[in-house]
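Ex. 9. Protein: Calcineurin-like phosphoesterase domain-containing protein.
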Amino acid sequence: MPGQTWFTADTHFWHGGIIGLTKRPFSSAEEMTHALIANWNARVRPGDTVYHIGDFAVRCGRERAQKTLDQLNGHKILLRGNHDENRFCALDGWDSVHDILETVVEGQRLVLCHYAMRAWPGQHRGALMLYGHSHGRLPGTRHSLDVGVDCWNYFPVALDEIRARLAGLPDVADEAPGANQAD
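Predicted structure tokens for Calcineurin-like phosphoesterase domain-containing protein:
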């Protein structure tokens, strides 16, 4: 039986500066990192898959980032974010690394990218766009949502939780009628 699929973004492991920037409830980078690891592993089992949609670790050495990745359960796929330096993308433990990824999870077509898109492949055929980067400052729509830890109480999130939140969001019409109809 395949494992559960999870989504997260913007963990910023070991980045003390993010605490003040996003008002995270931690007193230090170490406390935040340990809490994020515990939250991840409270949900994610070894056979599960996690799409990390960017900004894995910031301002730490490769060895520390590797030790952090090694502590996280699941098969991990990275969508490169603006803070994901090559040394973090090259860590052992990523199943794959992408800038943008189109995939299907639980029958749902998804477009995953660290940066929110206004239009994406399959948008008018039900594809959802999951992103990070904005730390909750960019509101989602009925078809796109920030899956970063700042929006989900510092836990990875499952597709059913994402769908439930999307259902309560407004549907934003395209400015140009017929945009992306050919996808």
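Check your answer against this statement. Residues 124 and 177 are 11 Å apart (CA to CA).
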